[in-house]
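Troubleshooting: if your tokenizer reports a length mismatch, compare against these two reference records.
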Amino acid sequence: MNTLKGKTIVITGASKGIGRAVALQVAAAGANLALMARSEQELQDVKKMAAAHHGHCLVFAGDVADEAFVNNTMEATVKKFGRVDIVINNAGFGVFKPSEEISATEWDNVFATNVKGTFLVTNAAIPYMKKNKSGHIINIASDVAKRVFAGGSLYCASKYAQDAYSMAIRKELRPFNIKVSVVYSGLVDSSFHSDPEGHGSHNWWLKNEDMANAIIYMASQPAHVVIDELMIHPLAQEY
């Protein structure tokens, strides 16, 4: 993981769950961090924990679906650290109910975060990565980008869209030595679910640290190696 020392890493959805776990691990590896999430207080808490690991950290509270916020964040990150090496698009949420019960507003909000947010943050980083002729976009999708389930029409559709976007830009960016990877996760004991993190029903699920280990493994590969896709589940979960 010392290959991440001195790298500048942008993480969305960094205030809790998977994003926070990744942030703390890469801070310990000596990376520079730009953390994005909605909650200022939770971001400040992560920043304090990162500082305990001697990590250099900027925090930006806002909405990844807000183009001005995203662009200003990327500009401030590059101004501070000189470059952006890795973007981890982790921000996301879901609404789960029969399709006819989903409102147009719920549809728009899920797509705004899960798809538009990934698009905006990636687009903001691409010019800097092209200039450096290197970079890595890691999009945190879900195994439902490859399958569907009843009650998941909205969330599944958003993750299929995020995955299709990732596959297309992978072809666009490879000639510029920019990697694009997607992580497809199964059940993770995070704040994403209706039951709180640490709930007894999650005992056999993946932990946030398991996801962080997988993401960091992808990010730590040599320049000539790219892991395009990684599917990860708890052993007890059927796929």
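Reference record two:
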Amino acid sequence: MELLSVQVGTPRTVKWQGKNVSTAIFKKKISGPVKMGKLNIEGDIQADLKYHGGEDKAVYAYSHDAYPWWCKKLDVASLPPGAFGENLTFDALDEKELCVGDRLSLGKCELQVVQPRFPCFKLGILFKDISILKTFMQSGRPGIYFRVLKEGQIQEGQKLEILERDPNQVSISEFFLLKQKGYKDMSLLKRLLKVENLNEEWRETFTSAIAKLEAQ
């Protein structure tokens, strides 16, 4: 998994459906090396810290091998790196292979897989079309949010390598589909709760979902 490009952005105010909205989803490609810290990549600032950013969403990565599908779907010749607001664009980032809790290295940095992306309306702002949210959910390619366990310098050409696999082996793709299907897979919910480094908000969500299923 090779890092093809790094993107950062800062909040800007845009008009959306008659209202002023602050968003940092518009990312600009930069040349490395650049520092990747616990909360973000140097030069990247999230606009809404309630739903974006923080240690559990420090950096968002997307796979360039999903771009051809999107080009065909959107009827465009090409898409630039960072087209989906991602900080890191890799040549291949397999959501079916990488699992919640996996630890990986990128240069001297260490990352941990946290969750897939579930898009908000700001993706609609980026593409000037709110229907992109439905298409994104149908694509099966959500990309991955990472924690930064060890800070350091990153730059194009570095390899993302697996250091340790989480023993519960819940892939990002499984996680993504679980929410789409309404948290009805009891077995998968229980496996996720066994992930030691599961985000606490998700732990509460999955615990509640199990309680509802057991009460049926």
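Descriptive notes for reference record two:
- Helices lie at 67-74, 121-127, 132-139, 172-180, 186-193, 200-215.
- The mean pLDDT is 94.
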